[in-house]
Amino acid sequence: RGAAAAGRRGPSVRERGASGRTDGGARGGSRGWAGGYPEIVKENELFERYYRELGIVPDGEWGDFMAALREPLPATLRITGYRSHAREILHCLKEKYFRELQHLEVDGQKIEMPQSLSWYPEELAWHTNLSRKILRKSPQLEKFHQFLVSETECGNISRQEAVSMIPPLLLNVNPHHKILDMCAAPGSKTAQLIEMLHADMNDPFPKGFVIANDVDNKRCYLLVHQAKRLNSPCIMVVNHDASSIPNLQIDVDGRKEVLFYDRILCDVPCSGDGTMRKNIDVWKKWTTQNSLQLHGLQLRIATRGVEQLAEGGRMVYSTCSLNPIENEAVIASLLEKSQGALELADVSSELPGLKRMPGITKWKVMLKDGQWFEEWKDVPSNRQTQIRPTMFPVKDEEKLKAMNLERCLRILPHHQNTGGFFVAVLIKKSPMPWNKSQPKVHQKLPQRTGDAEVTAINSDNGSEPITEEPTLDENEESKKKQELQNSDTEQSKKEGVCGPPPSKKMKLFGFKEDPFVFLPEDDPLFLPIQKFYALDPSFPKMNLLTRTQEGKKRQLYMVSKELRNVLLNNSEKMKVINTGIKVWSRNSDGEQFGCAFRLAQEGIYTLYPFIHARIINVCIEDVKILLTQENPFLSKFSSETQKKVKDMATGSIVLKYDPDPAKPDDLQCPIVLCGWQGKTSLRAFVPKNERLHYLRMMGVEVFKAKRKEEESQNKTGEEVQHRLAQTEEGMDVEDKEHDLVTKMEAEIGEKSSHSPVENKTDV
């Protein structure tokens, strides 16, 4: 329990950055925060003494290192790589928004032209000398800020710290990889992983998937929000303690097998002293105690990760801390316990252009009172609960050399104007020693009563808490075979239902999630949909699911075949927060239009390859009309479009724009929109930010100054909602455009069941 509490305390330091509360801040304490906050002096004598002694900063660079830490962190952004629109967004950024920044001065500071991060592939990541505070507050930058906010909402841009982009890149993800993100919230790295799965835009269902986990139930919903922007059927968000995340099983040719992951991202909770530039309260609160408390938790999480890694798989361990107790000490302990099963990968040739420092091989341990210890044998018995043997470097020179700790990399803030960061890339060559043999009877197993925690504190070598958990898991495997057969029988009674685990087996914190119910083969619901949209025979209808067992099915979601396998085989042991993308929504008066379900924009790029009817190809002028007018009459469209629509029945349609290479000035990427054809009108049914995105890409000016916008906002909002209510189409009320994050934060505090997930999906 103590270690878990430490785990909760640890992340809180770095989590505060998510709220933006401390961003920007006072420079060196010279200027106070707005709103009467006290000044924070950017000094910490213990911090300086500790890191000077450890020598992690090269000789002669200490002054630059400290000066960089006292400067606000520059704003960085990443263009979503897998979208077909990435090149268009990049072109728009460079040719329009960046050029407009060229000669600007804000608060007497000249705005530098944003620069691409030299080590990030294809110019898809950029940084600027603007702090996030200036970006939000300055009237001259309002247009650029609106662009960033809007594009972020629809998933085309992620505002993410530069160093945070490194771990997913070093995972070397391919579309067929099964990936586990162990401590995923708030989700910017998870988003990168999803993009990598969808590297081939022609494949709507890559064979790989991402299971994104977080221990904090509320932060799981931030994770859902990040993932939802990318509209992928290959992401599942789960809620577990990463240090004891359960073994999952999948069906392989009729046999149940343990799921091992090809890639694991292990970005553990940490003290966060690499984030001082944005979380300035770390200056005041920093002490070595944070690292000492977190080390055990970090080691347990990393150990659980490598246990679940496939042979030949790659795990990236990372922290936003500079401290070797949280970094090299964890990796060295893991390597030592692995007895050759793990090795550090040499990534020195990967990400050329990234300035990095090698991992260190010698360090000491310091208490918060400034007392140093060089070896475990020097630690007095009354300090042996705070300081553990695994915190010290390996003394055996031969062992130490074989570990290749210099292959770890540490990013220092002054080298490329970033935050501080640590990364290690591990390759699994064989099973972990304690997983190799699985005897039927194990030597003395701990009781599941918290004894393991006590053993961990009192053991001499600190290894028990790591080895006990997997041993217990392996021992339970034989017992579980019978349980699995029983649960199979239970499963067949309600085929395709994946409910949350029963409360007896697992305490449910936060919301009780609705079950995931796959559509039965013979469900009469599907036939009219298949007929109306002329779905291809290859359409994987078995992957359709709903979130309700009884009553009318209002939404249909879709997951990949591989995630379906995971869901169906693990409903008893896994708390799933969210999975699947919405592909169809029920219409209030749907049956009279030939089909009760209309297409949902968030799933259209997944569905489009399977749809053979109700597709209208439109020209760029038609697209502009569709996106700027609420419910335009058919007479406003080109004669070609009018002809195509003439004999088509009322109802949901697909509007497709294909670029014309002969017109290079026009938008050069395809667009697929959901729409509705009425008796006399044609409209696009697309969320607001996505509309703005497409219009920007077509060169239409969509910027509104804040004051004007605020004056007309309420009035316009009422008019739009009134028009929506009055349209002959009778569209689903769930598609009103909301501000997703605000809504989510409100609902997290107030609502139960699935509402925070279901009500957010169309934004």
UniProtKB/TrEMBL annotation:
Provide ranges: composition bias, Acidic residues: 466-476
Q: Which residues form the SAM-dependent MTase RsmB/NOP-type domain?
A: 65-429
Q: Can you tell me which residues form the catalytic site? A: 320
One of the record's GO molecular function terms: tRNA binding
Q: Does the keyword DNA-binding apply?
A: no
Any one Pfam family here would be Methyltr_RsmB-F
Name the enzyme group at the top EC level. Answer: transferase
Q: Name one GO cellular component term.
A: extracellular region
According to its UniProt record, where is this protein located?
Nucleus; Secreted, Extracellular exosome
Where is the sequence biased in composition, kind Basic and acidic residues?
708-726, 733-763
User: Which residues bind S-adenosyl-L-methionine per the record?
Assistant: 183-189, 214, 241, 267
The family note in this entry says: Belongs to the class I-like SAM-binding methyltransferase superfamily. RsmB/NOP family.
Tell me what this protein is called.
Answer: tRNA (cytosine(34)-C(5))-methyltransferase
Source organism per UniProt: Strigops habroptila (Kakapo)
